[in-house]
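input
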Amino acid sequence: MDPVDVRPSDAVVATRRRRRGASAAKSAPAPSVLGPRLRALRLGRGLSLRELAARLEISASSVSQIETGKLQPSVRTLYALASEFGVTVDEVLFDQALPAEGRPARTTGSSRVPAEPGLAVQRAAGRPAITLDSGVTWERLMLWADEDVEFIEATYAPGGASGPDDTLVHHSGHEFGYVLSGNLRVVVGSDAFVLAPGDSITFPSSTPHRLSNVGSEMARAIWVVRGRRGGHPGHEAP
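output
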């Protein structure tokens, strides 16, 4: 019996090549705008590198490297920066300009605030994302920027964590989390939980907490923080 030719057709080969190219393009890192945004916030508040570093309890060199894009902040440092500048993490990470489909800002007194969307769709391909230090990636799930709500998908690589070992963070707001895959360890005050797919958790953000991936596979979770802007700036707790 003659052997059967199972080689893919030219059309199939071309399709596979296009898919590989599209996948590579999607995974390629985009130029970071986080550093320039943080520098603009610092200068807008009249702070020097040394002054900001002292308040964050990190080195001036680390602040400089974050601003120049040579170093990505950890989740802990990112929350500390947002608290110091009096903004939300969403404002620090992502561009706040409304897309063409969004409604224009409304005026309240002398200030302009984002208008609530009647209907908005966030396509997966256009979802803003950033990879932070210590193996954590955040993707914004909400097209419309809400000052009171942060809505993200968080991915923790094996061993990834929101901060160094035994370092917890607390800030304004209330958190809601739902694990999609993997195992996520959540420490809230003196309590510790390992969440599996389908598990959820909620807790006041003012309670010192830490998130980490204790498993051998990627951990993905949907995370919502409400009221992040309110109250006093947060501080890291030992």
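quick obs: The radius of gyration is 21 Å.
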